[in-house]
Design a protein that fits this description.
CATH topology of the largest domain: Isopropylmalate Dehydrogenase
Strand content: 15-25%
CATH architecture of the largest domain: 3-Layer(aba) Sandwich
Number of helices: 11
Number of strands: 12
Order of helices and strands: EHEHHEHEEEEHEHEHEHEEHHH
CATH class of the largest domain: Alpha Beta
Helix content: 40-55%
Distance between the termini: 19 Å
Number of domains: 2
Radius of gyration: 20 Å
Shape: globular
Length: 345
């Protein structure tokens, strides 16, 4: 297959700028590799709520449902009403977040290449909060065996496929949350028995947060539940230059949604200074997924070309000021697109 329908949510704040930049890259890959990506705009987020009364209209949901994959820009205050709802609606149970050192910025820790595999559909993100009295509130944490089993399997399969250390670290707090995290930990241990070629270890979440700073190069695949994965992956992103360097994928058995892991940064909207790599690399992940799902080698080649062009552009400092250059958001994207066009093959 060389033609794909992609539902596109531009998002809020800097989202439209990142979307414009990412479309430049996708246009370049289409010309280079003969792909056809039909972009179908789907409105969602803060601005959408202001216009339509709801942050995620049914019309947008239908457009997403009819697409091969969804690419989404960052959303503002209504994020929980958009991305969390879509994760549950499409059962996108695996949140994948690669954390990798690229040539810039110079402040990045060198040699980091880790991958967060985060359960994406339960935990406290179920939104089961209640007020019992004026001064008493509760939040119900949901952890199921089925969700633990499939995210553990995804983590071990990822470790087997990567060129990393062939290592899975399960992160939990089973010494305190003995029932919920106890289940998560025990399922990860059970899964490890099926992967004798993969090294398995466990860390409590507080120790993991410390060791991410102290010895990040020791990690390969980190498997964890929803809330811990959200927090720790944001922490880890700071080691490689910040959230602007970190893409994310929400993967189910038959559908996937790709996005930057950061918010909409409304204070930077319209200034053309935002780092576009989080969304550009999310698009790269989307092409990889399409290639794997549909057996399309051209998609995989296009994804590889994007990453190679990103590296070349960073080395040349054809970047936004945050990364040491003097380009605008769109200007940096144009430099990456130009590198794709000029690349061999």
């Amino acid at each position: 297959m060389t033609e794909y329908k992609i539902s596109l949510i531009p998002g809020d704040g800097i989202g439209p700028e990142l979307t414009e930049a990412t479309l430049k890259i996708l246009e370049a890959t289409q010309k280079k590799f003969g792909l056809t990506l039909k972009m179908v705009y789907a409105d969602a987020g803060d601005d959408c709520k202001e216009k339509c009364g709801v942050p995620l209209p049914e019309d947008s949901v239908q457009k997403i449902r009819e697409s091969h994959a969804c690419l989404k820009g960052p959303v503002g205050e209504t994020a929980a009403d958009v991305i969390v709802k879509l994760r549950l609606m499409f059962d996108l149970y695996a949140n994948l977040r690669p954390i990798k050192t690229y040539p810039a910025p110079e402040s990045a820790r060198q040699g980091i290449d880790m991958f967060f595999v985060r359960e994406n559909t339960e935990d406290v993100y179920k939104g089961l909060e209640h007020t019992l009295a004026d001064d008493v509130t509760i939040c119900i944490r949901v952890i199921t065996r089925r969700a633990c089993e499939r995210i553990a399997k995804r983590a071990f399969e990822m470790a087997r496929l990567r060129n990393g250390k062939k290592k899975v670290t399960a992160i939990h707090k089973a010494n305190v949350m003995r029932v919920t995290d106890g289940l998560f930990a025990s399922v990860c241990r059970e899964a490890a028995k099926n992967y004798p070629d993969i090294t398995f270890n466990e860390l409590y979440v507080d120790a993991a947060s410390m060791r991410l700073i102290k010895e990040p190069n020791e990690f390969d695949v980190l498997c964890t539940c929803n809330m811990f994965g959200d927090i720790l992956s944001d922490e880890a992103a700071q080691l490689v230059g910040g959230l602007g360097m970190a893409p994310g994928a929400n993967i189910g058995d038959t559908f996937a949604l790709f996005e930057p892991i950061h918010g909409s940064a409304p204070n930077r909207a319209g200034k053309q200074t935002a780092n576009p790599l989080s969304m550009i690399l999310a698009a790269k992940m989307m092409l990889d997924w399409l290639g794997e799902r549909y057996g399309d080698g051209m998609c995989i080649k296009a994804a590889s070309a994007i990453e190679e062009a990103v590296v070349e552009t960073l080395k040349a400092k054809n970047t936004v000021p945050d990364l040491g250059g003097n380009k605008t958001t769109l200007g940096m994207a144009e430099a990456i697109a130009d590198a794709i066009a000029k690349a061999d093959g």
